[in-house]
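Q: what sequence does this backbone want?
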């Protein structure tokens, strides 16, 4: 039975010269899990918001959208609210109440659900999603992953016919993202839920989906079973970078055998290709540990000519025994943090949601002072910078929520306020100049935020999830301009959940756990020993092709073996 039908849908934003969607048509059967992917700005978010009519942007629309054979415009307000559920990219944007159980009950209360039925549905949903222990907790005390799970539960308690998700894992750490995706898989397999989800990060979700839909320039280019679509995507095409690491290595080494869709399948494919038996877990860990202890990593033999980090004597940023808490009675968020970021290097800090990464950046930027310890910026204590001189002398912060940087009604006005001309930017925003910043996709908002921050010409650039919401092509462009900034003498400290981006880009990586930096190593050593925060390539190759952390490294190593 058909659940969703989109027929010849075109859409042009108010005031825009060109349409964002061009004749989009797709059908989803009841109980189908479909993934929607494509480059930043290709129209994914616009399409999803048009399906959920309460979120539809202003503009001219042509074509039709049907849910269960009925035009969505013909649904009553109640039907539209409960039949189509929507989960946003940023968890905080969707939470509206002050307690977990209030959030679960909020939608049902607004629908006028009888109290007895509401209590039953809220109780069942809380248990299914593992939220019972957080029942009376304030949502702002939850981790990012828990907040997103709460958003999903608050939608599912209304028992929708169609669940729409717009890059729901973009703000989650790898472990939280996998937990969230596992819950989606349960809803799909156990509850028969129809799911349409847009995502740039296909690594951990592609093998869970029934269908992969690829968009390009506002139109659907490919649509079918994931393994079949992956085999049809050109290796050098714009969509190739969005594919899981196993698929990209398979493509890059000749496409021998069946296309693997995840790290597990990639590991079995690699074992068969190299004629090796899969090592036991203990042997795998011993191999990784031995690799680290020998000091000379095999990664250097298969690395794609990674540049050695610069090692100046003076540091751009130094944190010494830094402690921070938000209130006198609160818990310590940063605990005896010691971290040195060298001049001219790119340093990537990884860690789970709630581990203190954002707090560390804000502390390093001088926005919130620690209650103990000291912070030095190019050898001078941070507290000695007076009257705004810290901003003028070179620290800038790109926040995770870039919308906090936007003050004007159009991209053109935002750039003008920052003293920027579109043609001077390292990326093209010319087609967005008359759009409101809030009408941009998550990736486009990220690019506009980057432009505004770079206008300060900082010596130290702090970035909170700089690749959040960006597609694979834009992540590579981001890596390229970060390397350009580094070559010009800028120091960059970023916190990220994107392990592959960190492996490809950073000179050194660190892991923040419970407010303390537990490990600082070069990428080869860091990811050789990491399991849950490792890259897909490091998990695929451990014990079989040691030391590889990126697709380029693994592909080069296999070609040398051939």
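A:
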């Amino acid at each position: 039975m058909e659940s969703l039908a989109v027929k010849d849908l075109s859409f042009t934003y108010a005031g825009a010269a060109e349409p964002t969607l061009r004749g989009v048509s797709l059908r989803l059967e009841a109980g189908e899990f479909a993934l929607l992917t494509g480059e930043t700005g290709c129209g994914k978010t616009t399409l999803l918001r048009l399906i959920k009519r309460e979120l539809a942007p202003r503009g001219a629309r042509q074509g039709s959208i049907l849910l269960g054979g009925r035009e969505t415009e013909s649904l009553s307000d109640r039907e539209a609210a409960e039949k189509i559920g929507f989960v946003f990219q940023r968890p905080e944007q969707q939470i509206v109440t002050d307690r977990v159980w209030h959030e679960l009950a909020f939608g049902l209360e607004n629908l006028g659900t009888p109290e007895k039925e509401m209590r039953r549905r809220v109780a069942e949903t809380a248990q299914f999603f593992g939220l019972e222990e957080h029942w009376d907790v304030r949502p702002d005390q939850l981790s990012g992953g828990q907040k997103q799970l709460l958003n999903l539960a608050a939608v599912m308690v209304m028992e929708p016919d169609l669940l729409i998700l717009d890059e729901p894992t973009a703000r989650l750490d790898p472990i939280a993202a996998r937990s969230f995706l596992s819950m989606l898989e349960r809803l799909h397999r156990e509850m028969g839920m129809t799911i349409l989800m847009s995502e740039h990060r296909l690594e951990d979700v592609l093998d869970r989906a029934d269908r992969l839909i690829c968009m390009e320039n506002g139109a659907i280019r490919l649509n079918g079973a994931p393994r079949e679509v992956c085999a049809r995507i050109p290796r050098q095409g714009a969509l190739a970078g969005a594919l899981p690491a196993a698929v990209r290595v398979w493509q890059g080494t000749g496409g021998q055998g069946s296309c693997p869709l995840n790290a597990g399948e990639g590991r079995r494919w690699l074992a068969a290709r190299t004629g090796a038996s899969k090592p036991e877990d203990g042997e795998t860990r011993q191999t990784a540990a031995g690799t680290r202890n020998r000091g000379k990593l095999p990664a250097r033999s298969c690395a794609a000519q990674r540049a050695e980090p610069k090692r100046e004597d003076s540091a751009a940023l130094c944190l010494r025994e830094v402690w921070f808490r938000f209130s006198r009675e609160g818990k310590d968020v940063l605990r005896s943090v010691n971290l040195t970021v060298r001049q001219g290097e790119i340093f990537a800090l990884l860690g789970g949601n709630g581990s203190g990464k954002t707090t560390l950046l804000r502390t390093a930027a001088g926005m919130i002072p620690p209650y103990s310890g000291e912070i030095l910026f190019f050898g001078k204590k941070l507290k000695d910078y007076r009257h705004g001189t810290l901003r003028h002398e070179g620290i800038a912060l790109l926040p995770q929520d870039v919308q906090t940087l936007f003050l004007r009604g159009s991209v053109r006005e935002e750039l003008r306020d920052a003293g920027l001309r579109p043609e001077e930017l390292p990326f093209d925003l010319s087609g967005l100049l008359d759009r409101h910043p809030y009408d941009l996709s998550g990736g486009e908002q990220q690019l506009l935020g980057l432009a505004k921050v770079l206008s300060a010409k900082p010596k130290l650039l702090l970035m909170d999830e700089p690749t959040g919401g960006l597609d694979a092509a834009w992540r590579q462009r981001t890596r390229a301009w970060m390397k350009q900034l580094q070559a010009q003498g800028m120091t960059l400290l970023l916190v990220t959940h994107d392990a592959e981006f960190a492996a490809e880009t950073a000179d050194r990586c660190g892991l923040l756990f419970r407010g303390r930096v537990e490990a600082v190593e070069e990428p080869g050593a860091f990811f050789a020993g990491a399991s849950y925060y490792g890259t897909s390539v490091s998990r695929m190759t451990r014990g079989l092709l040691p030391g590889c952390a990126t697709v380029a490294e693994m592909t080069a190593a296999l070609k040398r073996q051939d």
